[in-house]
Amino acid sequence: MGAIIEKLKAQNELKKKEIVPELRQRDIPGGLFLACEKCHGAIYQKVLDDNLRVCPNCQHHFRLNARERIAYTLDEGSFTERYATMTSLNPLEMPEYTEKLKKSIDLSQMNEAFVCGTGTIGQINIAFGVLDPFFMMGSMGSVVGEKITRLVELSIEEKLPLVIIAASGGARMQEGIYSLMQMAKTSAAIKRHSDAGLFYISILTDPTTGGVAASFASLGDILIAEPDALIGFAGPRVIKQTIQQDLPEGFQTSSFQLEHGQVDIVAKRSQLRPLLIRLLRLHGYGVNQ
Amino acid sequence: MSQTHEDAIWAKIKLARHPKRPTSQSIIPRVFDDFVELAGDRQFGDDKAFIVGIAMFEGTPVTVIAQEKGISTPERIKRNFGMPHPEGYRKALRAMRQAEKFHRPIIVFIDTPGAYPGIGAEQRGQAQAIAYNLFEMSGIKTPIIAFVISEGGSGGALAIGVADKVYMLENSIYSILSPEGFASILFKDSTLAKKAAGLMKLTADDLLSYQIIDGKIKEAPGGFHEDIELTIKQIKLTIKKDIKRLSSQSNTDILNNRYLKYRRIGAYTE
Asked: Has this prediction a pTM greater than 0.90?
């Protein structure tokens, strides 16, 4: 893990320039400390980074951007990004969408909310993709849907197991019906992957809701959730408005989903990499490599 | 967006939601003979927001999957205003699997503001139920023909809408979210639904121009309820033509074409 941490530190230098405003505002001046979003305790930035951005006091899992996810999950230097230049159009000519996209691109230094490609984990070759919750809430529009579909098709072609880490508020509203149809497109691709006898692990992190929860993210052979993630179809605000009642404690959290049989495993961030390697080996990958 | 454009779209939505607009229970007996309704998902319950069953269409047995909002107030409550729970999607999938087994074409009528956002629905896996239907429908080895009859709202509509042919009635809408929901997200104000509707591109003409649907079914000038038979006749002609065309194709061709139908949808540059 030491090498990964070094790499992340280098990236964090870069990240300071890119970090989105809502993240910056909770930083304490100087950038050495920050307050935990959950327990509000002060944490050394360095301690947080060394701890995979999990609060050392209350175990709160901070949301991660795509670069952090790649660094925490894959073998160092193994990731080759694919389809990186794709960007969204504005098919419905929705006002302000083009500007909003441009702003997200500038802030994140990414072209879209999904980053994918191939890499290794414990020397096992996989197709890997990750949604970035800081890029328009990780919402799925045409580009996210197309990149996921291409990644799935690539993993069918190259007979690779597939690992996707979801973090998304759902559909990209500004792309309307195009966004909705990405649910069918990605799910149909996963069906082909499954029919080819290939292994797909879907990891649900905070948040995984709406059209992403109701498509490819729920279709893994194995579903793993990070602790305390919001996971569900409808958002809690919408449910509360609809039923005009308060929601039960812990509603739509990872442990709620585990209890209701909707996910296989809740795994802490520090356990994720070894768990993925074990699961891949149990499916015959990397055994004779 | 001009006022007249917004007004025109809103007029369509009012027709789509008109209290006299025929629902699936009025359409089914007019389009099919010998409809036998089948209940339940065999796991939890029977979702009344769905009517599913077997029927005869001009000599061909078919499976019918329909969402139903209800007509009278008590019935609308019983049918949860057409907002299905996971067991509804699972009931629909069960019927689709039977259709595949017995080589029956599947005819779908979509009519929902969206899947129900409630505690029980979440506990029983609403997201999983919808995702799994999308996954399975892409591989069901029998022709699937779908009609959006009034409202096709979000994943709750698409979860029975992965079809070989998709049509919309002239005054129906099909969208990522209801105009009210869209307004509440984008403008933080659900009362701006009319403004949202003007921007959302949710009419049959819009979706036809994007080649997301295959055709528009004509309605009488005052809407479907003004001349039910006129629209029923169009629906029957469409089903007849599609069953004939799709039945002549191999299952492999049908599934490949269904895959490509959704595969090509997207607007991006690289």
From this structure: yes
